[in-house]
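hey so u asked for the seq, here:
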Amino acid sequence: MSWNKRETKRLLAGLTFITPNIIGFAVFTLFPLVFSFVMAFTNWDVRRHNIFTDESVRFVGLANFARLFGEPDFLRYLGNTLFMMMGIPFGWPEAWGPPFC
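ran it, structure tokens below
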């Protein structure tokens, strides 16, 4: 398929409008998601791994998750978190007051 000048201009205009959205998604959603996934499998700690120390980050595999699930209060904390997250959307309409007529 050959592109004529008009189609090329329209493509560039569309890309110009969508580029800020793609950059925002990558910077504020994709990068933090990938970075937190990588950090979950390392021994990264803000107190030990910062610009003031030379200690390197090590890959620990599933050790972080084994330690997390081995905590005696893990299920209670998980339940509290789920209760809070479910309570926010269900409690929201009460803040609106009476329905609009």
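The chain is about 65% helix and 0% strand. The CA atoms of residues 60 and 66 lie 11 Å apart.
lmk if thats what u needed
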